[in-house]
From TrEMBL:
Enzyme class: oxidoreductase
Organism, as annotated: Medicago sativa
Region (Disordered): 25-49
Alphabetical UniProt keywords: FAD, Flavoprotein, Oxidoreductase, Proline metabolism
Gene3D superfamilies the record matches: 3.20.20.220
GO CC terms of this entry: mitochondrion
Name of protein: Proline dehydrogenase
Superkingdom field: Eukaryota
E.C. numbers: 1.5.5.2
Catalytic activity: L-proline + a quinone = (S)-1-pyrroline-5-carboxylate + a quinol + H(+)
């Protein structure tokens, strides 16, 4: 078997974690050492090298594409992707995990949890604790990828829950800093986990009303970037909201302090913080937190605080342009993660219930166009100035277009201002294809106890059922590589 080496792009000094220990080119932990089982061995291949930066994404050479994936993992991934592509099976699984079977005193609960842990959790999550997540990150690094590490908690409804979640996010920064330099590209935070949901809803109402009536004063509001555009939906707030109560202002002060502590921790660790997007009923408040913190912490060329734009929203591009141009005037480098979006059904239902048109693009073609247009704008912007962009897409065509645009602008190869991203356990072919072509690629990696991460798994199963069902491209390539390996072992 030929000697395999870590791709040169991983050995380069990248943007972040410059104060941490040097990258180790081999996995030194005994727990991570490969076994002698033939199924766990990686396939024979020549020494890994970078393709020229102007090479097209190559999905034809499946041996090269999956050269970092052991056969056991390839088999398991193929089986799980086939299972999640069957919508009735996803429906059955989500029903079961929400049913009385999951009650603590039900004897079947342990069986259900063990099955979930060994299948879907293991495939879509980085692990149950920080140590396991670190091993998962190390495995990605060996394959030429990076990790976006997220403590997998969902919404909080009181200050006690917010405080617990903050500790988890702060610990995530510590874990990230302990790993090899640049192996973690971002720490992810959900504002809904560190600020009570009811307060975010109230703040969003007040911000929307101020958009309707600029004379409406919000005494608690700090400097921010534009949150709304002229086409932004304001139908959530149908009447003038009452000002925040003294208790709500106190809760907001606590939420500000939590987010400030997390931002300062990321600044000290030199690891960027990426704020996840949510549904439109609370997104204005999330954008407010993001932009006010960006003004405070983003300096020089590279932003520390990144926001997320969901391009399935009709107003996404307009909001991005307004915020980006305002940041430029203030001398603030702004970073955005671009995604298509994850709340299509609920957003359309809410709008219909209130008697308004959906805020979501009418066709998938329009959504693709919006994502690609926003990608082009951000790539042109970072090619000529400060800022950063994360292109979070599972769409092969968008990946190809962005890669071509980046090369056209001269920002191909590994570039500290640009990152592609996919969810952990999904779109492996696109991730490896982009990485092999010389781009930085990260996987979104939630971690935490199964019980804690279960809401995340359920939400992902429901939000991404279309993506999972359409994972035929990955499944086809994985099957092709498995067949190739079987033939190679026989012959």
């Amino acid at each position: 078997m030929a000697t395999r080496v870590i791709p040169p792009r991983i050995l380069r000094k990248l943007r972040y974690n410059t104060a941490t220990k040097p990258f180790q080119p081999a996995l030194t932990s005994p727990a991570l050492a490969p076994t002698s089982n033939i199924l766990d061995q990686k396939p024979p291949s020549s020494t890994t090298t970078l393709l020229p930066p102007d090479a097209e994404l190559n999905f034809h050479d499946v041996e090269k594409l999956f050269s970092h994936v052991p056969t056991t993992k390839l088999l398991k991934s193929t089986a799980i992707l086939h299972a999640t592509a069957v919508e009735p099976m996803v429906d059955l699984g989500t029903w079961m995990l929400r049913s009385d079977l999951m009650q603590t005193n039900n004897p079947l609960r342990n069986i259900a949890m063990a099955t979930t842990r060994a299948t879907f959790f293991d495939h879509f999550c980085a692990g149950e604790d920080a140590i396991t997540a670190g091993k998962s990150i190390a495995g990605l690094n060996e394959a030429g990828l990076r990790g976006m590490l997220v403590y997998g908690v969902e919404d909080a409804h009181d200050n006690a829950g917010c405080d617990r979640n903050l500790k988890g996010f702060l610990h995530t920064v510590d874990v990230s800093r302990s790993l090899p330099p640049s192996s973690v590209s971002f720490v992810i935070v959900k504002i809904t986990a560190i600020c009570p949901m009811s307060l975010l809803e109230r703040m969003s109402d007040l911000l929307r009303w101020q958009k309707k009536d600029p004379s409406f004063v919000l005494p608690w509001k700090q400097d921010s970037l534009p949150i709304f555009s002229e086409s932004s939906p304001l139908y959530h707030t149908r009447k003038r909201p009452e000002p925040l109560t003294a208790e709500e202002e106190s809760d907001l002060d606590l939420a500000n302090k939590r987010f400030l502590e997390l931002c300062q921790k990321c600044v000290q660790a030199n690891i960027p913080l990426l704020v996840d997007a949510e549904h439109t009923s609370v997104q204005p408040a999330i954008d407010y937190f993001t932009y006010s913190s960006a003004i405070m912490h983003n300096k020089g060329e590279n932003p520390i605080v990144f926001g997320t734009l969901q391009t399935y929203l009709k107003d996404a591009k307009e909001r991005m342009l307004l915020a980006s141009k305002a940041a430029e005037k203030m001398g603030i480098p702004m970073g955005f993660k671009l995604v298509r979006g994850a709340y299509m059904s609920s957003e359309r239902k809410l709008a219909a219930d209130l008697g308004y048109a959906s805020p979501i693009h009418n066709t998938i073609k329009d959504t693709h166009k919006c994502f690609n247009d926003c990608s082009n704008y951000m790539l042109e912007k970072i090619a000529n100035g400060p800022g950063g962009v994360v292109l979070a897409t599972h769409n092969i065509e968008s990946g190809k277009l962005a890669a071509a645009k980046a090369h056209e602008l001269g920002i191909g190869k590994v570039n500290h201002k640009m990152e592609f991203a996919q969810l952990y356990g999904m779109s492996e072919a696109l991730s490896f294809g982009l990485s092999n072509a010389g781009f930085q690629v990260s996987k979104y990696m939630p971690f935490g106890p199964v019980e804690t991460v279960m809401p995340y798994l359920l939400r992902r199963a429901e939000e991404n059922r279309g993506v999972l069902a359409a994972s035929g491209f990955d499944r086809q390539l994985m099957r092709k590589e498995l067949v190739r390996r079987v033939k190679a072992s026989v012959l």
